[in-house]
Design brief:
Layout lengths: L4 H4 L2 H14 L5 H14 L2 H4 L9 H24 L7 H29 L6
């Protein structure tokens, strides 16, 4: 579990990111744009730091790499926390991982709400 935990930490954000990309592809409806954007920033929280969706350019690549590093770190921490007991299962890993991921996602929601308040409703 300690060897595969960091890589397993990338599975959920990758699935969320792919779903977000599918929603954004050939987007013509507002709910798809909002849903795709929210899923994208849940999968890659560093996109907000890079200025998404207000900027374009190569900073998105760095944001994706930074988000991958974040999820690998969370997977590592979750695997360490889950293996504190002698008999650790993947269920223990995912329980620890979801607590950590939930904290990241709450931070993303707070950041989006704060940006929306600061920008006067132009963000969402």
């Amino acid at each position: 579990m300690r060897q595969r935990g960091p890589v397993a930490g990338l599975v959920l954000p990758a699935a969320i990111g792919l779903l977000g990309l599918l929603l954004l592809r050939n987007n013509t409806q507002p709910w798809r744009g909002l849903g795709g954007f929210l899923l994208a920033i849940f999968a890659a929280p560093a996109l907000l730091v890079a200025g998404a969706p207000l900027t374009t350019g190569h900073s998105y690549t760095l944001a994706l790499l930074g988000s991958c590093a974040l999820w690998i770190l969370l997977g590592t921490v979750a695997s360490r926390m889950a293996t504190r007991t002698p008999v650790a299962t993947w269920r223990d890993y995912w329980r620890e991982y979801f607590w950590l991921a939930g904290a990241v996602w709450i931070g993303v929601v707070v950041a989006v709400v704060a940006a929306n308040l600061i920008l006067g409703g132009a963000f969402l």
